Amino acid sequence: MKKILVCEDEAAIRDFVVINLKRAGYEVVEADCGEAGLQKYEEHGGDFDVAILDIMMPGIDGLQVCKELRNKNSNIGIIMLSARTQEMDKVTGLMLGADDYVTKPFSPSELLARVDSLYRRIAIVQQKNENNFKEELKSGIFTLNLRNRSLVKNGKLIELTQVEFQIMEYFFSNPGTALDRSDILNHVWGEAYVGEEKIVDVNIRRLRMKVEDEPSNPKFIVTVWGLGYKWDA
Hints:
Layout: E1 2-7, H1 11-23, E2 26-31, H2 34-43, E3 50-54, H3 62-72, E4 77-82, H4 87-95, E5 100-103, H5 108-130, E6 136-139, E7 142-145, E8 150-153, E9 156-159, H6 162-173, E10 179-180, H7 181-189, H8 198-211, E11 221-224, E12 228-231
Parallel strand pairs: 1-2, 1-3, 3-4, 4-5
Antiparallel strand pairs: 6-7, 7-8, 8-9, 10-12, 11-12
């Protein structure tokens, strides 16, 4: 059973999300605040594929929950729920390790499309792990391990989220090639993704903080003005 943690303090929205996820075949554990969400995560031994977190909650907000969940589990998929006015919070959530965000108000079909897309990416990685997939890709001083989704730079381990790993795999498979933002979006988030291209830029910022010697002056993940990015190692 595909298992999801839903953390939302507004009962009407939480009920709406839970009902539609259950109808789609997901097992759902719900929490009405950040503290309860973290407690539920521990009670279930971290056995969740995806977490849906509202950004604005009293006490521990969704951003802090996101940060703590990502520190505990690099494999879990995280989707943030945000209001249209929370533009900076969306970016902050992505920088803290969220994979995607959905803006309120949203339709059941939009939410399920995001959840299904994220779950498919997670399932592919899990399948590789179960099959003891051990292939590595090398690029300059970097080695990308396709089995444990890790990146090594000069012998130093760099942990990656699901999205970061898929972007790096795409870069490693197309070294020196200018990749359009829309191509990266389609490859990582899927052609059915209905979000915004800027999610690519935020994840690139996060990756640069991990792989570059000087993130403000990148030499590995290079911006191709008017198009997107290229990997130059």
